[in-house]
Amino acid sequence: MYELKKISYNFDALEPVIDAKTIEIHHTKHHQNYLNKLNDIIKKNNLDVSKSLEELILDVDQVNDADKVGFLFNIGGVINHDLYFEILKPGGSNEISGSLKEGIESSFGSVDAFIEEFAQKASTLMGSGWVFLALNPNKELELVRANNQESPISHGFDPIMVIDVWEHAYYLKYQNLRPDYVTNFLDIVNFDVVKELYDEKVK
Ligand SMILES: [Fe+2]
Fold first, then answer.
1. How much distance in Å is there from the Cα of 128 to the middle of ligand 1?
2. How far is the CA of 153 from the centre of ligand 1 (A)?
3. Centroid of ligand 1 to alpha carbon of 31 (angstroms)
4. Which fold has domain 20-87?
5. What is the pLDDT of residues 38-82, one digit of tens each?
6. Please, are residues 151 and 73 in contact by the beta-carbon 8 Å criterion?
7. Which listed site, 81, 114, 155, 160, has its alpha carbon 20 to 30 Å from 140?
């Protein structure tokens, strides 16, 4: 069965942008819960656990009809949170540079235009969901919205950065002020990690 991918920093490492309690609950309760439910569905459907989750999500046709929605919801919940906690790893640069900067400029015109579109899409997404920076099948960068726990991998996209805009990601500190969370969030993204993912996936 799959195990929860541990986060490599302390719960308070992203203060003051995201408080320790929020990270703790988000990772040890929400993230863990998606994993537990996913493992139950995998067991019930005898799925191939030698695969990565990014491969397994494409095997949805092998899941019983009654479990398909739950499978996609919970595997998306695990994959999306894995990426979210990974790209917030402290210690890197919050500046967009090098190959990533070139890719962003090529797709969005400028880094400022990218940030503006990111903030707009994340602040105005209705209900619960995510905004991903992802490579489309032509290896171009796009900002992709996803509702609930949908993963862009199901649609042929390869995500390299993400913001979680479910209320559980920010409500303790920001309450109804999601735009403030979105703006501050960009200060704690580790763009060195995002650049590594970009270089790996753009090939
Ligand atoms: Fe979340």
1. 9
2. 17
3. 7
4. Helix Hairpins (1.10.287)
5. 999 999 999 999 999 999 999 999 999 999 999 999 999 999 999
6. no
7. 81
